[in-house]
Amino acid sequence: MPAPAPAPLDGVLLLCVDLQPPFLKAIPDSAAVVKRCAFAIEAAAGLGIRVAFTEQLPRKLGGTTPDLLALARGADVYAKSSFSVFGDDGITEALRSLDIEHLILCGIETPICIYQTALGAVDANLQVTVLSDAIGARRPADAEICLGGLVRAGIHVLPSETVFYALLHDAGHPFFKGFTQLVKKHA
């Protein structure tokens, strides 16, 4: 008999920011970023966490990498021109309508869209966690400086396994076995 499905974590959203091929090509070791984002998406799905994507100017730059979209069938995809997700009133209202309390961020680019979105989320009275191993930047040194600033602003910056193990709480969680398989798959 299969384990019962976990109860959804209402109020939590994994937001995958601007994982579009033109941006990924500019990021050193983008394959690792995509792999860690895939891990985060699959872990979120297993825990019943809602997943959404943003795309920067998709008409001009194209959409999210299809492999990642396929991991979160039915996920909302928001087009934007602002760097912060919260610079777009339509997206802000859509997130508000979902009653999101905690935003988990992955994607690119750390010193621009991730940084501004994280600060915008704090301004919107949301808790924020940035998945430190599922983000990327053209200049990693710039990203490190920005991550330090986010920590000083009260934002959690943690590796994805740390975050998802914390959400599991216990090895008795119905998704624990599936999660450990994801850990091995994405090692």
Protein described:
There is one protein chain. With 187 residues, the chain is α/β, with parallel strands linked by helices. The chain has one domain: Isochorismatase-like (Rossmann fold, 3-Layer(aba) Sandwich). 48% of the residues lie in helices and 20% in strands. It has helices at 21-26, 30-47, 58-61, 66-71, 89-97, 110-123, 140-152, 160-168, 176-185, and strands spanning 12-17, 50-56, 76-80, 102-108, 127-136, 156-158. A 6-stranded parallel β-sheet has the order 3-2-1-4-5-6, with helices on both faces. β5, α7 and β6 (156-158) form a beta-alpha-beta unit. The longest helix has 18 residues, at 30-47. The protein is globular. Mean pLDDT is 94; it is low at 1-7.
Summarize this structure as a short list of keywords or feature phrases.
187 residues, alpha/beta, Rossmann fold, 6 strands, disordered N terminus
